[in-house]
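Thread: "does anyone have the structure for this chain?"

Original post by V.I.:
We have the sequence but no experimental structure in hand. Need at least a predicted one for the grant figures.
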Amino acid sequence: MTNETWRHGILDLDNVTVNMYNSDNMGFYNMPVARYTYKYWIIGDDGVRREWRVLAGGFSGKANVNMYGRNNSVYLTTGMSYMKHWQNEGLIQSDGASNIVYSSFSYAPTLSKLISPTDPGYLHNTNMIKLSNIKLYGDENIGMYFGSRIKGNAAKVHMEGANELESVYGYNNKAAHIGLYQGEIDFSAKIGEKLTIDNQNQQTAEGNLNNTGYTDKTVDGAVGIFSESGQRVGIVARGDVMEGVPPTAAEINAHRTDPAWDRWFLYKWNNTTQRLEVDKNNIGPGYGFPMGNDFSKDPIHNLEVAKLDIRFGKYSKWNYGFGKTRNCN
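Reply from O.Q.:
Generated one for you, tokens below.
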């Protein structure tokens, strides 16, 4: 199931069951957003003018997920994202090895800090992840993973044309590659309570890894929450992750004839030449986006986990509740 970051509501799942077999599958995917679809103004049915992004929704309800194969993800989010809520009351189980419940390569800012406190949507933009019933039986499973990088330097957005525009406007694409999460986390998991979903006396072939010291009678090498992104105080949101303060409109127009300044002007698609062409008569979103989105209002902090309950069962061996490469709280 895929949710469009830039225009979705809340998908409320009513006791859905998902069974994953084989490898490289994902259950729920939050698509990344392109910069120019990040912020719109709309008029609601009540006549109130709102920013589009205050309507960002999420996944909620009850979805039971069973992962029988390897290298799968229940939830995946990539690219710049303002997914608001990931809440699941269902049971998520992993029979197989090397699966991840929640996998993030997204920068997810707290949007309420970016908009005016008087805006009608101000109080509705605190990100939340609440996964309270996770059970891991295979080796080297991960409950929550915040990644350090997706391969490549191009932006990770929802279509090829958007990727091209991200490049010509010179956007900082670090936000498209790294798992920086500024919201709230409520996570509970049990590791090694059983060896299989159906309570057999040994792991399945897909669940047992043939590593030194591992056995099919123990659950080995799992991690509750693993942060590899290096999220920490000191990373500058407006500069390190997102665009810094742009030059003024007067400065941009004064350099109209300088090709080095083309990124600040509007690009349009020419149907005849089948290519993007710069319009030097109009300043583009390469200027408008960083001017209208001051991410310094939401300073990067350490990864914060408000509520954590990870328990190790009688079959658990060499497992970890929390793993990190840099600061986390």
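V.I.: this helps a lot. DSSP finds three helices and 22 strands in the chain.
O.Q.: and Helices lie at 160-168, 249-254, 285-292.
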